[in-house]
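dumping this here so i dont lose it
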């Protein structure tokens, strides 16, 4: 007999019953409808029934919040040319009874196809439960744009070429595997985050692409800027803007500063890190907590009251309680199969492969819209733009479908929202393919602004270029970080005090700085040379130092590939920048390939595909 501790909404109850039926389920709905809660409820119920459950998400942050791993790590998905690779279900997938994927809207169609094919290759049925809202942030597709790096792989064009139609944003529901899953769709509609019915109605209009929904936010959002002491969070379009705002806000505070450094052990990707590697704080810094505890929850606001060598003391805004906060550990896991102790049977368990240790907080003055997905704020400054260089093509913070809806739906009430910029400059609301997928009738929607086309080569060539001269001081980045400590005997004096708490990167930076200085003056470097260790291919991305080569790197123009076949294998010459990724691709195609320095030797049947991959990675292949 099941007992529900918390009353579920009608949509949540329907989703739970659909999962109990054993069918594949797609749980969707707008922001603040309780998707995360019902997902955790489902995970707990499946595990209580002693089912082997794999929990994963499209992003590292989402995986951390749900207590799982990324899809790429769980299914061993390659980073490049996923649609060209043969799905090979890992042992953990073969033992699973159910797979749960959170934030499926940010999962590319080729990646979703790979996952479905892995599940289909398993001998027993696996229940697939996906959660997300396709009206929110879309997958990331790299594309070539005028004036950008020509080596960038145009993934949208390649995907469209592979599937035989324009893939648009590359949403998972466009993948052939989506239809084969035959999902039961459960859409949650009861909003729990906001209570104002008028705001909820306007948010839903923006979500489905009805431009008339913006009128409510123009008329009712806060007209007066927040004061610095109000503790509002600025939502930005990119990491650089958020970091700049946070650093400037901390620097404006009086008093000395402490910089706390993260400690990284094992395999830890950038996407696995819930907080920055370096956190600069002063007394009075507004922070947001990044972990649950007995004294606060993930997303609670607090103010730094004391700085210590071991951590900080903060005052939680909601309770006014002073809490000591020390660095905490975030284990980085992967799924493995281990004996269960029941007559030789095996079970799936999480195995730790890395650890990230840092203070469980970060400055709360600014955050990117992408990282805000799934979070709730009391006071928000939405920075729309335009930002960046002045010119014919200014850069906006809102540059993707669903991004504006995600930003607007993060705040609890309209009184806590201040919009910095013109909503009329926003060109994108909802993707047309998503509107069709959800069956939205757009015939009565007012037409929105026409999206600004990308500049052509002629426009870029004729556009005047401005040259900015940097000052000689204050602009050069050095490898040596100087630690300055100023006395705080005056009580209110200003200064900086940087203290290393976890890593030894300062020593390495200092050694690198000395080596660079000696090279610049023509002196022979005496810095100790270290031989990089060979790393196993578990991080999903190799570097030149992470893999040994059988021959030294040859410098110069790449020689022409010989047409003759040696021992049934054709040599394909790569550059130092592409050899690791081409080897990763080729080794997944066939186990018969070999590597010899910058040459990848493959059977003749795979020659064309591998050569094509190498050319794409070098940016010289034209579709």
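and the seq i came up w/
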């Amino acid at each position: 007999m099941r007992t529900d501790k918390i009353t579920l909404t009608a949509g949540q109850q329907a989703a739970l019953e659909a999962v109990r039926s054993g069918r594949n389920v797609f749980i969707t709905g707008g922001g603040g409808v309780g998707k995360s809660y019902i997902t955790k409820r489902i995970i707990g119920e499946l595990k209580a029934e002693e089912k082997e459950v794999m929990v994963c998400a499209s992003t590292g942050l989402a995986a951390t919040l749900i207590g799982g791993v990324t899809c790429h790590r769980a299914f061993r998905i390659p980073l490049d040319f996923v649609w060209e690779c043969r799905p090979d279900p890992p042992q953990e997938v073969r033992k699973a009874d159910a797979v749960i994927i959170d934030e499926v809207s940010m999962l590319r169609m080729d990646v979703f196809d790979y996952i479905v094919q892995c599940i289909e290759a398993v001998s027993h049925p696996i229940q697939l439960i996906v959660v997300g809202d396709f009206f929110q942030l879309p997958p990331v597709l790299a594309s070539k744009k005028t004036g950008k790096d020509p080596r960038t792989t145009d993934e949208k064009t390649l995907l469209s070429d592979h599937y035989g139609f324009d893939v648009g944003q590359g949403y998972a529901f466009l993948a052939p595997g989506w239809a084969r899953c035959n999902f039961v769709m459960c859409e949650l509609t009861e909003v729990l985050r906001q209570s104002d019915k008028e705001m909820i109605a306007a948010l839903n209009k923006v979500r489905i692409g009805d431009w008339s929904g913006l009128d409510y936010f123009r008329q009712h959002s806060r007209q007066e800027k927040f004061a610095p002491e109000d503790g509002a969070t600025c939502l930005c379009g990119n990491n650089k803007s958020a970091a700049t705002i946070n650093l400037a806000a901390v620097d404006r505070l009086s008093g000395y500063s402490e910089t706390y450094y993260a400690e990284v052990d094992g395999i830890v990707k950038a996407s696995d890190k819930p907080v920055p590697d370096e956190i600069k704080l002063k007394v009075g810094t507004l922070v947001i907590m990044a972990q649950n505890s007995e004294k606060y929850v993930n997303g609670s606001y607090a103010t730094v009251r004391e700085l210590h060598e071991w951590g900080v003391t903060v005052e939680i805004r909601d309770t006014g309680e002073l809490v000591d906060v020390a660095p905490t550990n975030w284990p980085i896991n992967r799924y493995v199969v281990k004996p269960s102790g029941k007559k030789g049977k095996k079970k799936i368990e999480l195995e730790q492969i890395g650890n990230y240790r840092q203070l469980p907080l970060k400055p709360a003055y600014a955050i990117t819209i992408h990282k805000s997905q799934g979070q709730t704020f009391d006071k928000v400054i939405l920075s729309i733009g335009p930002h960046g260089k002045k010119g014919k093509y200014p850069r906006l913070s809102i540059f993707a479908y669903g991004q504006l809806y995600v930003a607007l739906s993060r705040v609890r009430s309209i009184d806590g929202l201040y919009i910095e910029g013109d909503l009329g400059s926003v060109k994108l609301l909802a993707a047309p393919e998503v509107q069709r997928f959800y069956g939205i009738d757009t015939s009565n929607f007012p037409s929105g602004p026409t999206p600004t086309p990308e500049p052509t080569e002629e426009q870029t060539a004729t556009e005047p270029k401005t040259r900015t001269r940097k000052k000689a001081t204050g602009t050069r980045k050095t490898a040596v970080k100087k630690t300055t400590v100023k006395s705080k005997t005056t009580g209110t004096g200003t200064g900086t005090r940087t203290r290393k708490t976890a890593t030894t990167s300062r020593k390495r930076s200092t050694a690198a700085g000395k080596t660079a200085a000696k090279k610049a003056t023509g002196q022979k470097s005496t810095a100790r040379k270290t031989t990089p260790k060979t790393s196993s291919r578990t991080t999903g991305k190799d570097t030149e130092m992470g893999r040994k080569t059988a021959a030294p790197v040859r410098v110069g123009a790449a020689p022409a590939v010989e047409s003759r076949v040696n021992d049934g294998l054709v040599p394909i010459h790569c550059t130092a920048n592409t050899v690791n990724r081409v080897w990763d691709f080729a080794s997944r195609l066939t186990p018969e390939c070999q590597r010899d320095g910058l040459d990848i030797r493959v059977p003749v049947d795979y020659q064309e595909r591998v050569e094509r991959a190498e050319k794409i990675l070098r940016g010289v292949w034209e579709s």
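Residues 145-152, 387-394, 452-566 have pLDDT under 50 and may be disordered.
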